[in-house]
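Quick one:
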Amino acid sequence: MLSRESSKLIQLVTQHQDQLKQDPVFARRLMRKNIVPLVDAKGLAKGVLGKYGRQANQQQIMAFQQILTEVLIRTYAKAFTLYRNEKIEFHPARLNKKSNRAKVKAELYLSNGAPPVKLIYKLVLIDKRWLIRDLTVEGISLVGSYRSQFASQIQRYGVAETIDRFDRQLQKLKSNDGSA
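Output:
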């Protein structure tokens, strides 16, 4: 699944490279259409909230999920504008026989000849589809990284206020770039 979707995404990025660089709204739309369906956004949001997720109600978790999804879209849309014919090599999935989880190791080979970047995709099986729950890059977990960023804010302001603050920041970004 990852190899197939990765190839499809690389083809799209290569095909639209100039437009991706010139039009951030187009880049985010491409990510929203092609990346978001592959991600367990709810599980990702709960993982980032960590222990603070127990303090959040369902509406707050959904709001946080939407904010986090938009942050990821914006982050990866920018990253894809930097694409320079890098290659990715996936290893066979390691399934956890006791649960609905798997890990897939991969290497990202950069076009500048630097050593490959080690990746680990953590997947979860939901409704007969494997979805990405976390991505670890060179030992740094996406979920863990975001969790530590949000934890300090939640400790300071609480769950509801932190979600509101990030939502206001995101709305400001959207109004500034015309994507509101």
